[in-house]
Amino acid sequence: MISSKANENSCILDNNRSKYQQFSEDRGSSIDSHENAFDDMKQLVTDENNENKSSLHYASFNFINSIIGSGVIGIPYALHEAGFGFGLLLLAFVAYVTDYSLILMVKAGHICGRFSYQGIMEAAFGKAGYIFLGILQFFYPFIAMVSYNVVVGDTVTKVIVRLTDIGPDNIFAKREIIVLIATILITVPLCLYRDIAKLAKISFFSLVCIAFILFSIMLRIGKLSEMVPDHPHSWRFFNSDIIPAIGIMAFAFMCHHNTFLIYSSMADASQKKWETITHASILTSLIVACVFGIAGYSTFKAYSQGDLLENYCWDDDLMNMSRLLFSIQILLTYPIECFVTREVVENSIIGKDPDVPISERVHYGLTISIILTTYLISMATDCLGVVLELNGVLAAVPLAYVLPAMCYLRLEEGSMLDRNKIPALGVAIFGFVVAVLGVIFLFMDLEKVNQCSHGHVMAYCTDRNSTIDQIASNSSKINRH
Fold it and tell me: For residues 223 and 245, what is the distance between their CA atoms, to the nearest angstrom?
């Protein structure tokens, strides 16, 4: 990590602020009035709460909560993609780069005097940068909503089959129907709200769900690892699918859209305090991700799925409870992502006046269109790993690595090859290479879409059930004799 240099630009800071404030004032279509419109956590915090400055510990908790989410469920699959040993090293490296990029964002904010992602992009690249950021901030939550539908289709289907003992041909055992019912009864009513501030309370519930799932995974390591058969690719130190693995890891660590909200919530915010919070939050999140990855991979090794919960047997009631909690968590998170996506369309495409509410007809039509589109796309695949990779390389990597580094390089004085800019240039190049290669490799290997195991009992579960049935049959014969 680079050391804090809080006063390194003290002489030019005021001049830069004046310059960039004048930049916005001179533009008739200044974006300052709604430059925070796309920060999803921003929409969930009331003005009264924004006035209360938080301590370092509380700010760290909020930051950790914004990082740890549904993405950790794909870490075991990422370790399989990159190889177990190299995957762990890669996970630590991605965390390191994420940490550095978060520090760069706030440094860029101090240089230009604009403390929002949209603000530093506009200051660095003008309206074109603002629009490009808006496009990425549309695709990130949009693809996330698709992944949520995929997870609900996977997990809730298994729970219903287990609870009701219905056959696989029953209409309520079809993922398309389950996701449709969940969409109509839960996500649509919640997404139609204009103000979803009450959903801010799900933050603590989300962490409880993740903790319970991790606890369940740890309990099942010994029992299931003995059932899972050997695989020639298990425990490989290195595998070739490095770029897709980075995409999944970047998705898991993605939190840059909340950076300035958390920074502005700190009491006596400074660059040095921000670096302390960032280091602590990323390190804690890395530990949680490593525990998830090691526990999941140790259990299923080369059989690890993009949705780890897909690996567990249908008759495992503990994991069914985990599936249910995980589904509830993402069903409550879905409206937040929908809110962000809708805000991007309203502000960047429709050109909504931030002081004038959009009409009910447009609000409902836009919301339903977004939900319907994500539903149809999610029905095209039941492979969560592919969706996570796609969101990682298309949106998370540029948002987390390329743009923060480019903003800093553009706003900081001096040559691009100055000594203090070299690390930022490295981050930008790293993110650009991963994004480009990730898209190329993903579309060259589209058959992965059909490699998931949704709807099928894993082979080791079938073998276990056969063994149990055989034991029961032998016991019955012995009793008869």
Answer: 27
CB 352 within 8 A of CB 340: no
DSSP state letter for 54: B
Per-residue pLDDT of the chain (481 residues; tens, 9 = 90+): 444 444 444 443 444 444 444 433 333 333 333 444 444 444 444 444 444 566 778 788 878 877 887 788 899 999 999 999 999 999 999 999 999 999 999 999 999 999 999 899 999 999 999 989 989 989 988 988 998 898 888 788 878 888 888 887 888 888 899 999 999 999 999 898 876 655 556 667 777 888 899 999 999 998 888 889 888 889 999 998 899 899 889 989 988 988 887 898 888 889 999 999 999 999 999 999 999 999 999 999 999 988 888 888 888 899 999 989 988 888 888 888 898 888 888 877 777 666 677 888 999 999 999 999 999 999 887 777 778 778 888 899 999 999 999 999 999 998 888 888 999 999 999 999 999 998 888 777 766 544 555 556 677 887 655 544 443 344 344 334 4
Residue 359 contacts residue 367 (beta carbons within 8 Å): no
Whether 217 contacts 299, CB under 8 Å: yes
Query: Collapsing DSSP states into helix, strand and coil, what is residue 417?
Result: coil
The Cα angle at residue 326 between residues 235 and 311, in degrees rounded to 5: 30
- 54 forms bridges with which residues in the sheet? 266
Q: Give the Cα separation of 289 and 327 in Å (integer).
A: 19
Residues 6+ apart with CB under 8 A from 434: 243, 246, 247, 250, 393, 397, 401
Are the C-beta atoms of residues 362 and 106 closer than 8 Å to each other? no
255 C-beta neighbours (distance < 10 Å), count: 25
The whole-angstrom distance between residue 355's C-alpha and the CA centroid of its chain comes to: 31
